Automatic annotation (TrEMBL):
Protein name in UniProt: Hexosyltransferase
Compartment list: Endomembrane system
Originating species: Rubroshorea leprosula
InterPro entries, A to Z: Glyco_trans_8 (IPR002495), Glycosyltrans_8_dom-fam (IPR050748), Nucleotide-diphossugar_trans (IPR029044)
GO molecular function: glycosyltransferase activity
Family: Belongs to the glycosyltransferase 8 family.
The enzyme's E.C. designation: 2.4.1.-
Main location: membrane
Signal peptide stretch: 1-21
Amino acid sequence: MAFPLPLLGLLSLSLFLTTNAFATSGIRHGIIRKLSPPNVSIFREAPAFRNGETCGSQPIDRIHIAMTLDVNYLRGTMAAVLSILQHSTCPENVEFHFLWARYEPDVLASIKSTFPYLHFNVYRFDSNRVRDKISKSIRQALDQPLNYARIYLADILPPHVKRIIYLDSDLVVVDDIRNLWEVDLEGKVVAAPDYCHANFTKYFTDLFWSDKKLSSTFSGRKPCYFNTGVMVVDVEEWQQGEYTQKLEEWMVVQKQKRIYHLGSLPPFLLVFGGNIKSIDHRWNQHGLGGDNLEGRCRSLHPGPISLLHWSGKGKPWLRLDSRKPCVVDHLWAPYDLYRSSLQLLEIAYNVIPCVVKG
């Protein structure tokens, strides 16, 4: 009778997940991992996806995608990666570049066990590089140093990466990512869907607009809002134009004068607003997480969709698990590789006797 104690622990796991999983702003992978059965990943293994006949096999055929790795958003990252591979004509040509704030062996093990055939690299983003430049915003999640890592991509990526797609972790792709990768930048540094119908003035404070020297930065431009969770970036042009430094300069101004409220987005608008390559809105059906304060449900915008993005406070995995999902959250669910507490219990009944016999 060596297994009642582990079994008791697993029963406690079910209760723990039910009562505590939503007390935080996201699923904390480290907490769940420690309570899961021995040698069992909390994510299911994804299928192996193979290239189609038209795919090349040379370095030039690679599609480079950058994402951040955060234990609080790991469930979202897994779903995003699966969606990209599943809808790609050439999934073996997709190479992921993950940025994290510190070495997380459990996170790395989860990626390897969930996607055994994935081509990926992991880079450490030094949070100290940006920590003293961050100003408090309207939502704590926006103040995390890793949220600013996209500003430093050109300094972190290896020299052979000349172009990169940056993606947030709270999205799924429902189209061939190669269609986004092959967009013609037309000499621009950044390509993204922009939204000129949005009220651009609200992204900055009255102090900014009343200061003629500051607001004149938009002189000669017609700036429009764009979401930085989906961008195609010319890495070489970024480096040559020293855009990291330009973004940092605005962050310093923000520390002194409080000219905006929304984390890492406004510096991008200040530097690139009105000077990006605009691409089809289908590549960022954003705002599905609601606003930044309450995260209320939102419906889809009309038109074709290639990418669904739960930007905003509400995240689909949290709303689904709380049994209070929005309608759009069911579009994310098919890509969720997370094992529920009941699935872990079912596995445990098979795992524990083996552990006891061993």
